[in-house]
Design a protein that fits this description.
single chain, 315 residues, alpha/beta, TIM Barrel, Alpha-Beta Plaits, eight-stranded parallel barrel, two-stranded antiparallel sheet, 12 helices, 36% helix, binds iron/sulfur cluster
Length: 315
């Protein structure tokens, strides 16, 4: 496994980062011991970087997964807290739940622009204090927006930016893949540590996994890429691919056999673009929200590519 320095944080992270949204109650809803096994499998294969969020509900899985691991494990978390008291509560919850003395990286979750960051400035001020006290080692933002990457790059308070990036540009809210790549390059030149997310477009690029991974791995400015995994075969597949090894045929077969489904997040705005895109007639609007008929759905992922809210996932 290759390790890279994350900007100026002093943290050496594995190129593959375990994304834990997929194991938690919002997606696969694995038990703590099942989720911990996935995390442990990745750590044993050389991964040292775990990505989570307060929202994901995976602190317990991570605590179990890293229990007894002697080498350094780097954990990134984030919360939507916007004020000092809220962010203090978020950091304290992470420290207590993970049973750690510090959280390596703490991010403002889903920032959209300079203005949303300003609206969270009390939370930033608390994180800066927490960094001085050694409770947090680096801070920054996660985002689906190009303008947020550009704004965070110019703010000296932030060490780390986690942008969405994938070969099809799925989920980028305010532009396309090339503009996001340009913003990532600018941020790296300004010394920010960057690690990507949604390399598989929330599962919508699963039928193009190798192309999608090759694309994110070609972005030299990304120290790491967080990839959600919820199955031992997915861990083996991802580790092999990120190490530049041939993925064993047995592992490929197991990943292909994995039963998948399509979910629509409850923040669907009911715009209907996905309904128009689906040629299988599997989507309709019911009560102002998109609804899927799984009997008709071919899990092609085309609908996810047109959703402006990034609320369609294949898990
Ligand atoms: S994944 Fe494909 S078939 Fe399923 S709802 Fe979306 S566009 Fe339709
Ligand atoms: S495209 Fe997205 S926001 Fe629009 S109706 Fe479909 S799921 Fe909802």
């Amino acid at each position: 496994m290759e390790y890279r320095l994350l900007g100026k944080t002093g943290l050496f992270v594995s190129r593959l980062c375990v994304g834990t949204l997929t194991i938690g109650p919002l997606q696969a809803d694995l038990s703590v011991s099942q989720g911990a096994k996935i995390i442990r499998r990745a750590l044993e294969a050389g991964v040292n970087f775990i990505d989570t969020a307060e929202l994901y509900g995976t602190y317990e899985h991570i605590k179990e997964g890293i229990r007894g691991v002697s080498r350094q494990v780097i954990i990134a978390s984030r919360s939507y807290a916007h004020d000092r008291a809220g962010m203090r509560k978020s950091v304290e919850l992470a420290l207590k739940s993970l049973q750690r003395d510090y959280v390596d990286i703490f991010l403002l979750h889903e920032q959209e622009s300079f203005f949303t960051m300003k609206g969270h400035w009390e939370a930033v001020e608390y994180l800066l204090e927490a960094k001085k006290e050694g409770l947090v080692r680096a801070l920054g933002i996660s985002t689906h927006c190009i303008q947020a990457v550009r704004a965070a790059a110019l703010l000296p308070e932030f060490d780390v930016i986690q942008p969405i990036i994938n070969t099809a540009g799925v989920g980028i809210k305010d532009g396309g893949r090339e503009e996001m790549l340009a913003a990532i390059r600018e941020a790296a030149q300004l010394g920010k540590g960057l690690y990507g997310m949604k390399a598989l477009g929330g599962g919508n690029l699963l039928d193009r996994t190798e192309e999608a991974f090759r694309f994110v791995l070609s972005i030299s400015e990304l120290a790491a890429v967080a990839v959600g995994m919820s199955d031992p075969a997915e861990v083996d597949y991802n580790v092999a691919f990120f190490e530049g090894r041939r993925v064993p045929e047995r592992v490929r077969r197991e990943v292909r056999r994995k039963k998948r489904t399509l979910i629509i997040e409850d923040w669907c705005a009911g715009c209907g673009q996905c309904v128009q895109r689906c040629t299988a007639g599997a989507l309709s609007l019911v009560g102002g929200k998109a609804t899927v008929d799984l009997a008709r759905c071919r899990l092609c992922g085309y609908c996810g590519s047109v959703c402006p809210e990034f609320c369609i996932k294949i898990i």
